[in-house]
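Table S2 (text version). Query chain:
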Amino acid sequence: MMKESALQSKQWRMLFVTMFCYLFFYTGRHNFGWAVKGMSRELHISFEQIGWISFSMLIGYAIGQLINGNLADRLSPKIMILCGGTLSIICNISISFATGYTTVLVLWTLNGYFQSMAWGSGSKLISNWWDDEHRGRAFGFYTMAAGSSSVLTFFMALLLVQQNQSWRTLFRYPVLFLLGALIVFLLMARSSPKPIADQKEDSPESGSHQSKSWKKDYKEVFANRKFITASLAIGCQSMARYGLIFWVPIHFLGENYKNSDANLWLTLFIPIGMAIGAVSFGYISDYLFNRNRSKSICAGMIVSSFIALSIYYVPITNQFGASILMFAAGFFVYGPQSNFWTLNPELLGTRLVGTGTGVMNMFAYVFAAIGEPLFGKIIDYTGKTANIFLVVAVICAICAVIISFVKTEQQPASAKIT
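Corresponding structure-token output:
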């Protein structure tokens, strides 16, 4: 039996090494948008084809979440993360040598699948190490790593763009940092403490994990109405999130995006807000809402809806005002996502965290994939990018309504790993 101080030290070590690894994962995914302009010109790829490439990656990621989440429950989360990261690096470097549309489409779709091997596996690893009482905080930090990964990727891409580097370098240099992070993760990470005593969810009537087939795992997850309701809610949250990441900079920056270094750096405020919001909502749900994840999510999405409406109705005439609203929008739209991942083990138990995270993230990315052409269609039809914020406001409000139907029993504070 581990001494409590030694266990806490290892818990934080496993959390930070998982965060460090995931901090660099987006260098192999969010780099694509920055390469679009050069890629389109050099390979003679239309923007419609670029849209299909992006759509295919999101679908590949969604399908991968559905499959790889369950594998994380059955295999080693550590091995899953290492394999996914390595294969993603190979896809990125291969794309840097591509000469046509089909090659990029196939490789980027595969990259989406390989990238999906990390998030659910990391969630499983963290759930193995952290108990119910402190899991909100742990997932807050973990989700912050994802938000920070966007900041890091934006920063690296901006440096390369400003140095007039080829679009191909965006698929070569940033992922080298992911390679270094994978090596650190290989040397330091462990999938779970030994023994794992926090498995009260494995009730005698359900049988051991090894005796249950993957079909039964999925059946159990999809039969949980509260979980499916929460998955629909995160779908709306993810649609709003990607609406901000992709379309809000276009609205604020307009034609100046190509000419103003100041405006280029302004785009960083959205992912910065997302990163800080993620860790903040881990604490907000634990302490302000007494670990009631649903109420925390609902509150965050309601505020997000009001912020989106404020952006629409209040004219922004200076960069300071735009940066504040970008930060606030990122903070409240993305922050509640950390509560969704904490809600997952509370609804399904730690045994099915990988499967549940995969299914939940599948909903998130299917909705995000559907949302991208929807936002574009609305802009084409109305001719006004400002309408993005009306749509985001409506989507956030719908998310708040849906998650309000998810009620969870209060977890006892004494449930701990020993």
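Notes on Table S2: DSSP finds 16 helices and no strands in the chain. The longest helix spans residues 353-382.
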